[in-house]
Design goal:
The protein has helices at 37-49, 81-100, 111-131, 148-155, 172-175, 181-188, 199-213, 254-262, 264-276, 296-309, 331-351, 368-377, 392-400, 431-443, 446-462, 465-478, 494-497, and strands spanning 8-16, 19-23, 29-33, 52-56, 67-69, 72-76, 132-141, 160-164, 193-196, 217-218, 221-225, 240-247, 282-289, 317-324, 359-362, 380-383, 407-411, 424-426. It has 503 residues and is α/β, with parallel strands linked by helices. Bound molecules: GDP-alpha-D-glucose (GDG).
Length: 503
């Protein structure tokens, strides 16, 4: 490592880098573009801003020098096998993930996991602090790194710090379970701007701050007491730093999805997919990481019952389910995979014929072209998440439908439901309601499909990921240290409460 590291004005910090270190069977290693919501969303932003990205390369016990990939400076942070198990698979994926998703699965609390979380967060913070130039900006991503903002503020008070939470922030009644709830809230408050997916997430966080720390909040601001003579005085007469906590709903690089959808080879592939499935009247599609938050079982149950009831037949309707492998070493995920695959086997065994499969199930990751071809081939997109920060798949489906056709069935528990109101919104726990909505989608006249899809497309194409990042960075610029306590904001109004420019 060079003695004086290069410094960057704009640094993104996330658990995973936008590239993966992949080792082939013959032992040769290479860097590959890695899929996933966060990467999909941030890559265009990084390219446009010529910044550096601090993160883990995805393999334990390996150290790498910084390097450039695809126009982005990559700054790897090493994790030991033990840290991967405690900080990542443990505290991040088996404590915080279920806790923040309505405890759909029971969170596990282990003090050694927490200790590892603190240590690893410190390492990320140190690395980011080291490579950020004087007065620069650091944007920390997601729930794995909630302590980093406070650590950064302590090390680099000159830097502007943003944090974006990609997953929901839970209601106080659930968050309070966490033995380290106070440290987490304090960690986040190190940021100047804390972004959430939904307005409800931001208010859950503000409520946690009021309740756990007793700080006052005037939506969308939180007043953090500081020991700084030059800081402005709050209404209570104390010196404060004002933190903006607001929703900035994330989106996709919509134009690149449209471009893929316009390619003749992708369209030909979509036709081929339909033919391969026996040209059924209706193709339904689910695309998810294999995760218990995504409601894959609920979707399959509804589809299986529709076949059992005779409201759908296997000749007329097929459900294609892409379940990309995820967190395979965490026990809950192993169990979920078994349950889902058992369900697929049962439904196919009961209703499949020699020529028609009821559920075409794929436990793979696919290239993006193939995903777009699948979206184009699907008459109905089923997003039945039990809880989801946003759900980019819903937006991708809409973006590729240049034909203004296709029906989006969308869970009201996905952040996307706040924006995509022209979808058919469902409660995935209500299997009867879900079945009826699926039938409504199957039977929906072309004119209605077009009207709905047009409205959805307008929303997604206008609010793309570039707009998302621009509005977050604008908010950060408005609250730079030294000037962050600008004149008091306009009194909380309806537009403040709904996020104004970001929504
Ligand atoms: C988290 C939050 C939030 C999936 N399989 C393949 C593949 N994907 C891509 C999809 C989509 C992305 O991964 C998944 O994004 P989601 O938003 O649906 O869900 P999470 O992974 O849980 O993401 C979520 C997101 O962060 C962003 O803030 O929306 O709520 O949970 O882009 O297309 N891509 C390819 N092959 C696959 O097999 N190429």
């Amino acid at each position: 490592m060079p003695d004086t590291p290069a410094r960057y004005g704009f640094v993104v910090v996330s658990n995973r880098l936008p590239v993966d270190r992949v080792v082939a069977d013959d032992g040769s290693a290479s860097w590959q573009h890695s899929p996933g919501g966060l990467v999909t969303a941030l890559e265009p932003v990084m390219k446009a801003n010529d910044g550096a990205w601090v993160g883990w390369a995805g393999q334990p016990d390996l150290e790498f020098e910084p390097f450039e990939a695809d126009g982005i400076e990559i700054v790897p942070v090493p994790l030991s096998a033990d840290e991967v198990q405690r900080y990542y698979e443990g505290f991040s994926n088996d404590t915080l993930w279920p806790l923040y998703h309505d405890v759909i699965a029971a969170p596990t609390y282990h003090r050694v996991w927490w200790e590892s979380y603190v240590q690893v967060n410190q390492r990320f913070a140190d690395r980011a602090a080291e490579i950020t130039e004087e007065g620069g900006t650091i944007w920390v991503q997601d729930y794995q790194l909630q302590l980093v903002p406070k650590m950064l503020r302590e090390a680099r008070p000159d830097v502007t710090i943003g944090f974006f939470n990609h997953i929901p922030f839970p209601p106080l009644g659930i968050f309070s379970q966490l033995p380290w709830r106070q440290q987490i809230v304090e960690g986040l408050l190190g940021a100047d701007v804390i972004g959430f997916q939904r307005a409800d997430d931001a208010s859950n966080f503000s409520r946690a701050v009021r309740h756990l720390l007793g700080y006052s909040t005037t939506r969308p601001y939180i007043e953090v007491p500081v020991d700084d003579e030059s800081a402005p005085v709050s209404r209570r007469g104390t010196k404060v730093r004002r933190v903006l906590a607001k929703h900035f709903p994330i989106s996709i690089d919509a134009a690149s999805y449209e471009e893929l959808a316009a390619r003749p080879d992708v369209q030909a592939r979509a036709r081929e997919i339909r033919e391969g499935l026996g040209n059924p009247k209706t193709i339904m599609l689910g695309v998810d990481r294999l995760d218990y938050t995504k409601g894959i079982r609920h979707r399959m149950k509804a589809f299986g019952e529709l076949l059992a009831d005779g409201r759908l037949s296997v000749e007329d309707a097929t459900l294609v389910q892409v379940a990309s492998p995820s967190r395979e070493r965490v026990e809950t995920y192993k169990q979920l995979r078994d349950e889902i695959e058992l369900t697929v086997g049962r439904v196919n065994g009961d209703y499949g014929t020699m020529s028609h499969t009821a559920i075409s199930y794929h436990h793979h990751g696919y290239p993006r072209e193939e995903m777009v071809a699948l979206y184009l081939a699907a008459d109905i997109m089923l997003v039945t998440a039990l809880r989801d920060g946003m759900n980019l798949v819903a937006k991708e489906y809409v973006a590729v439908r240049r034909d203004n056709d296709g029906v989006l069935v969308l869970s009201e528990f996905a952040g996307a439901a706040d924006e995509l109101k022209s979808a058919l919104l469902i409660n995935p726990h209500d299997i009867g309601g879900l079945k009826n909505t699926i039938m409504r989608a199957v039977e929906m006249p072309k004119r209605d499909r077009t009207t709905r899809m047009r409205a959805l497309r307008r929303r997604v194409l206008e609010n793309d990921v570039a707009k998302w990042s621009a509005s977050f960075l604008q908010a950060l610029e408005n609250v730079r240290p030294g000037q962050q306590i600008t004149p008091a904001p306009a009194p909380a109004s309806a537009s403040d409460a709904t996020g104004g420019d970001a929504s």
